[in-house]
Amino acid sequence: ACPVCMSLAWRPIRLVCGHMFCVRCLIKAQRKRMMACPLCRHDTAVGQASALNLDGSMEKFMLMYFPKEIKRKKLDNEREQAIEDVE
C-alpha cells in the first residue's frame, strides 16, 4: 500500500531511498515542489523520481494477486487526473 494515500500502490514508484509510493501521490508531491521522501525525508528522493523508478516486479505481483483492486485504483487515478487536467 502507498503510505501517503493508504491505498494500493498502482504503478508503484520506488524512490532512491527505497520507499515505494503510488504514481499519483508522487505526481502530486512533485507538483507541490515537495522533494523529500514523506517517510524518511531523504532530501531529493521525490524530485528524482521518474518513470524509470517504476517497480516492475511489484507491479506484476499486484496485477497477479490483486487484479480487481488494481482495476479500481486505475479508474480512480484516471478520474483524478481528468479533474486535475480541467483545473
TrEMBL record:
Which Pfam families did the record assign?
zf-C3HC4_4
Residues in RING-type domain copies: 2-41
Q: Name one GO molecular function term.
A: zinc ion binding
> Sorted alphabetically, which keywords does the UniProt record give?
Metal-binding, Zinc, Zinc-finger
SMART domains in the record: RING
Q: Which InterPro entries match?
A: Znf_RING, Znf_RING/FYVE/PHD, Znf_RING_CS
What this protein is called in its record is RING-type domain-containing protein
